[in-house]
Specification:
Distance between the termini: 88 Å
Number of strands: 0
Strand content: under 5%
Structural class: mainly alpha
CATH topology: c-terminal domain of poly(a) binding protein
CATH architecture: Orthogonal Bundle
Radius of gyration: 26 Å
Mean pLDDT: 95
Oligomer: single chain
Helix content: over 70%
CATH superfamily: Ribosomal protein L20, C-terminal domain
Order of helices and strands: HHHHH
Number of domains: 1
Low-confidence stretches: none
Largest sheet: none
């Protein structure tokens, strides 16, 4: 009995991947094996970098808060320590946004902590 290969399903699977890599450079967009590898590698990078993005943003927020509090003669670590001591529960994302976009409110927080 001849081997059954189900060409319809195989073709559909290949078309699905080739559609996903459309727009990529060189053979990555039209050669099956290269396209499949490119797609899989891209998915790995996407998975990894969804986690890396969180780390990068936290670092950015810390840098912005540090730059904001340096104007008032504090360091980042001292500022965060005093925030916790005074039981002011604002996260780094909010503090960084205030330091950048609303300096008046950020100044009020710094002076509330500094006393």
């Amino acid at each position: 009995m001849p081997r059954s290969v189900n060409a319809v399903a195989s073709r559909a699977r290949r078309k699905k991947i080739l559609k996903l890599v459309k727009g990529q450079f060189g053979r990555r967009k039209n050669v099956w094996t290269v396209a499949k590898n490119a797609y899989e590698k891209g998915q790995l990078y996407a998975y990894r970098d969804r986690r890396t993005k969180k780390r990068n943003f936290r670092g950015l927020w810390i840098q912005r808060i540090n730059a904001g509090v340096r104007e008032f003669g504090l360091s980042y670590s001292v500022f965060i320590g005093k925030l916790h001591k005074n039981n002011i529960q604002l996260n780094r994302k909010v503090l960084a946004d205030l330091a950048m976009n609303n300096p008046g409110a950020f100044k009020a927080i710094v002076y509330a902590v500094k006393d």
